[in-house]
Each structure stands twice: as C-alpha cells, then as structure tokens.
Amino acid sequence: MNALDRLVSSSFGAIGVLATAAFLEAWGDSFFQVSFYRSSGLGRGLAFAAGAIVLAGYGSVVNLPRWDFGRLLGVYVTLFFVVAQILAKVRFGSSPTLPIYVGGALIVSGGLVIALWQV
User: Fold this and answer.
1) Residue 50: per-residue pLDDT
2) Number of domain units in the chain
3) Taking a C-beta distance cutoff of 8 angstroms, is the pair 5, 13 a contact?
C-alpha cells in the first residue's frame, strides 16, 4: 500500500487529497487560460508547459490511490467548483455573478447529496 492509499483510507485524508486534486486541476487550467488569452511568445509557451505539468500532477494525484473515485465524484466536483472560483478571483480578478452563486449552491447541494446519502 503506497502513501496515497494510506492517506485516502480516512475520510479526512481523502478530502485532503481531493482538495489537492481540485486545486491542481483548476491551477493547471488557469495556466492554459494565460497561455491562450493573456500572453504571447515565450510566455505563452512557458504557461502552456506549466499547465501541462500541473495537469499531469493532477492526473497522478487522482489516479494513483486505489479508491472508488466515482463514489467520491460529488465531493470532488464541489471542491473543484469552490477552488476554481477562488482561483478565478485571486488570479484573474473575476468575481462570481449571481447565476454562478445560484448554480454553485446547486453544485454544493448535489455534492452533499452524493456524499451523504446512505443506500
């Protein structure tokens, strides 16, 4: 059992790994945003390469543990939404609009249903 498997064996550890994955995915996407729309020349290439490296890290964090990722998807989508909104504000100065708040409330509610509903 590798270190990530041991970490995700607890609920707290699994949420921590999912939050890390959400951050890496949103951060990697933000590098692509910079590469495509906010830079040129060498800066564009560096931002693109950084995005690829960070997204490879995200893929590793999500896929190395032996867990039922489908069952955790609701929690992950919720974490990704929250992290993406924070990164959009911090990195690009983009504040959520009312539709994003309303849609986000639905995303968070859905994530809670998926995570907490016991069948």
Assistant:
1) 98
2) 1
3) no
How is residue 89 written in tokens?
């504000």
CA-based nearest residue to 79, from 53, 113, 104, 101: 104
- List the Cα angle 99/69/26 in 5-degree steps: 45
Nearest-Å Rg of the Cα atoms of the chain is 16
Tell me the two tokens of residue 10.
Answer: 């607890």
Nearest to 84 by CA among 100, 68, 71: 100
90-99 per-position pLDDT tens digit: 999 999 999 9
pTM above 0.85, yes or no: yes
29: how many CB neighbours lie within 10 A of its CB?
17
Show the domain range for 66. Answer: 3-116
Instruction: Return d(Cα 70, Cα 103) in angstroms, integer.
Output: 22
Mean pLDDT for 52-81 is: 90
